[in-house]
Amino acid sequence: MRWDEFAAACPEIAERARPRFETEQLVLVGTLRKDGSPRISPCEIDFAEGRLLLGMMWRSRKAQDLMRDPRVVVHSVPPDKTGGVGDVKLYGRAIDEPEPETREACGRAIKAQIDWRPDEPFHLFSLDIEEASFVSFGEERLVLTWSFGKGLRRGRAPG
Fold it and tell me: Which among 19, 44, 144, 147 counts the fewest CB atoms within 10 Å?
């Protein structure tokens, strides 16, 4: 499901994730290489038209991975080893976004944040979210997991 649909279905995770993503503007993206082994790469993240968008350099390895196999995980960048601010993971499939309107909306979002916009060609994917999690080892010690079929589950982080 698109970001806006996910945010309506699971505000408990979305309301923790979005401000973090907007502040850091960077995530780690896990993809699958041609041989099936994992690849992890940094990636800029943006929101436009109700979508969570991942922009990538033209013909980058991570973009080629997603063109071949769209399964992906998006992980917040840990600021330190304590886990106090929480850890966000979104699992799903990357959807290629070739439509000029979506690409223009993404360009405007980037320009508004950092006064720069990417030149064509570049890859743009939106995330079709299937599962999500949030784990905090701070005072809250919280575990939230969500999936399309099972909804939200809440627990306490170990420790």
Answer: 19
